[in-house]
Amino acid sequence: MDAAPPAGRDADYRGLAAHLLRRARALGADAADVLVAEGTDFSVTVRKGEVETLKHAGSKALGLRVFVGRRTASTYTSDFSSAALQALVGASVDMARVTGEDPAAGLPDQTPPAEELDLGMFDPSPALLPTAERIDRARRAEAAALAVSPEITNSQGASYGSDESRIVLANTRGFMGSYRASGVSLSVIPVADRGGHMERDYWYTHGRGLSDLLLPEEVGRIAAERTLRRLGARKVATCEVPIVFDPETAAELLGIVFRALSGYSVFRNATFLKDRLGERVASPLLSVVDEGRRPRGLGARPFDGEGLPTRRNVPLEEGVVRFFMCDAYAARKIGARPTGSARRGVGGSPTVGSGDLCFARGATPPDQILGEVERGLYVTDLIGFGIDLVSGDYSQGAVGQWIEKGRVVHPVHEVTIAGNLKQMLLDVDAVGSDLEWRSSAAAPTVRIRRMTVSGS
Asked: CA-CA distances (angstroms) from residue 187 to 82, 205, 285?
């Protein structure tokens, strides 16, 4: 086997991937794909103005997936030496020969050529920022939080992080694609104290480049205000009332719905939506949109983990299940088509994942959504895991604000909200106009007509 090409350049990795695919075919593989990933990662955490942790690391790795008929094996390595790669290919083919046959295994039936797209995924600005200025941004965010009120007495730290990555994916069907991506974030966790009772909360900003971020002082201010509003929290009596999920907690609900819409959940009989294709399962106000190519989106990419073009998917449209999210494997298992939703790392096989995922923006201002509630709970944080996707049973610890006559009157903690997703989705009676992208999953304010609040 020839020596591996030098690492670090797109052309080198493309050549390496093509070489490994040829070698796999020569050893008896009927099909194969190769994923090469290279990246750098920086992070710093500051607490009370002092640097607590600082990390700057680089990595590269390569994953190989081979098929012998309908038998498959996956291997990966971070050793790019000729001997290691030769052993990797040979071991992969040998392993595939002895695994069990799976009729759904295989590359996508067709992989169109990679498109030349500029989605704004790579921004050089984070890497160009001097280390001292990265630390300073974290310090500024923490200092701003501590300055908001004397009741902000401590901090669990402020963190600044950035990363860059390069991806090359190739398969024996002739697909060869690559892209570069970057990310940068800033967050802070202040602690408030009132009469010996302490609370904490957080805020963050995240984007592809420095121009996407809020100012550190803004991040600190919002984090402090979110923390202060938790002071004086108390339980409420058990009741059935409207529940309003703020955008952050609505995004957690979105993630649950997305998992229920996965083709993997369908063929594993692990979703209450399994037999509901084409049926209304949610309020007409509710649509799930997965944007695979949103410009500068943190989940955007030109192709998925199998080389299929990414796209805009709306699996739940105005409350109706239109299709399930699938990679090639899940699609074969349930008799559907891939949706460009394969996600993978260098190790293991693809699975279904999202791009930039959201509940579609509604028409109602968030203040109106709260103002229409006579008595209910505004949820700002969720705790624990109590979701059964098969039955739809839902139960989670919650923190938030109690609403009386359309106004927030006091903070609430140590309560549980419960219901069943089958009814919860149908009972969505308001969706806010406040959709903002702060990560690769976003949601506006969402109100559910009635759920159980278990308190004192």
From this structure: 42, 6, 32
Q: What are phi and psi of 228, to 5 degrees?
A: -60, -35
pLDDT at residue number 3: 37
pLDDT for 6 beyond 50? no
Is pLDDT above 90 for 9?
A: no
- Residue type at 100? G
Dihedral, CA atoms, 43, 47, 52, 58, nearest 10 degrees?
0
Q: State the amino acid at position 132 in one-letter form.
A: A
Q: Collapse the DSSP code of 262 into the 3-class scheme (helix H, G, I; strand E, B; otherwise coil) and give the result.
A: strand
| Whether 224 contacts 189, CB under 8 Å | no
Query: Within 13 Å and on the Cβ side, how many CA atoms surround 49?
Result: 4
Residue 417 or 9, more confident: 417
Question: What is the distance between the terminal CA atoms of the chain, rounded to a whole angstrom?
Answer: 70
187 contacts 213 by C-beta, under 8 angstroms: no
Specify whether the CB–CB gap between 186 and 162 falls below 8 A: no
Q: Would you tell me how many other CB atoms lie within 10 Å of the CB of residue 206?
A: 18
Which residue's structure tokens are 């295994």?
105
Is residue 344 a contact partner of residue 351, using CB atoms and an 8 Å limit? yes
Angle made by CA atoms 76, 53, 209, in degrees to the nearest 5: 70
CB 27 within 8 A of CB 35: no
